[in-house]
Amino acid sequence: MDFKQKIYILLAGGVFFLSLSGILVKIASSPPMITAFYRMFFTVLLLTPYFLKNHRQKAAYFLDYRPLLVGFLLAVHFILWITSIEYTDISNSVIFVALQPLFTIALEYLFAKEDLRPGALIGIVMAFIGSSIISIGDFYQLGDKLFGNFLALSAAFFAASYLFIGRGVRKKLDYFPYLYILYTYAAIFLGIGAYIFEIPFFGHGINNYLILLALAVGPTLIGHSILNYSVRYLPTSIVSLSILGEPVLTTFMAWLLLNEQVLLTTLIGGAFILSGIYLASVYNYRKTKLQKEALFAEKNS
C-alpha cells in the first residue's frame, strides 16, 4: 500500500469521526446550550498546552474584533444545529446542515461579487428541490420536524457566515491558532448564554460528560485534524466532496444504532441536496483553480 492510498484510508476515517457528531449529540442528555458549551470547552482545554507552547505569540489576535464575531457566529451555529436534533430526525438535521457550501457560494455572490455560474446555480436549485421534498414528507408534523429542519437550515447559514467572514483572518493566521481563538470565543459566548438563561453547568451525570468529551475528541479534534492533514496531500476538491459522506454515514448509524426510521422523502430529498452540493462544490473548485492559473500566468507573462 503506497502513501497516497493510506491518506485516502485516513480521510475515510476522518469522515467517520465527523459522522459520529450527530449520534453523540442525540444520545447526550444535557440541554443543547450545555452540549455546545462543553464541546467547545473540552476542545479548548485539550488544545491549550499546544497553543501556549507553539503559538502564544499569536494571542494578540484575541484583541481583533473579527475572531470575536466569527466565534459568536460559530456559537450560534452549534446552538441551532444541536437544538434541531431535538425536534427532527438526525438524518434531516445532518442533510440540511450540509447545505453550508451553497450558502457560502451565495454569500460570495452577494458580498464578494463572485460570479454565480450555471453549475452553482443548478446545484442551488437541486438543493432547494431536495429541501422541499423533505419538508413535504414532514408536513404532517408541522410544529415539530419542520421547526427542526428550519433550525438545521439556519445552522448551515451561520456556518457559512462564520467561514465567509473569517476568510480575512485566516489569511493572516495559521490554521491552528485561528481555530484555537475561534473555539475559545465560541466557548465563552456559549458559557455566557448558559449563565444568562440560568442553565446549570453541573449535575448532568458522569456518562453525559464522557459523551461530551467524546464529542470534542472525536468529531472536533480527530475528524477535523484528519481533514486538514489530508488536504496537504490530496486535491482540495476530493477532501471537500468526501465530507458529503458525513450525512450518509450519520443517517446509516442513526438507523442501525438508534433505530431511527428514515422516510422515503428524506432519501429522495437528501439525494437531490447532496447532488446539488456536489455540483456546486465541483464548480467552485474549478473556478478557484482557473483563477489561480490566470493569476500565475499574469505574474509570469
UniProtKB/TrEMBL annotation:
Name the GO cellular-component terms: membrane
Q: Which InterPro entries match?
A: EamA_dom, EmrE-like
Keyword list, A-Z: Membrane, Transmembrane, Transmembrane helix
Q: Does the keyword Transmembrane helix apply?
A: yes
Q: Which domain of life is it from?
A: Bacteria
List the transmembrane segments: 7-27, 33-52, 64-82, 94-112, 119-140, 146-165, 177-197, 209-231, 238-258, 264-285
Q: Which PANTHER family match?
A: ACYL-MALONYL CONDENSING ENZYME-RELATED, EAMA DOMAIN-CONTAINING PROTEIN
Tell me the protein's name.
Answer: DMT family transporter
Organism annotation: Halanaerobium polyolivorans
Taxonomic classification: Bacteria, Bacillati, Bacillota, Clostridia, Halanaerobiales
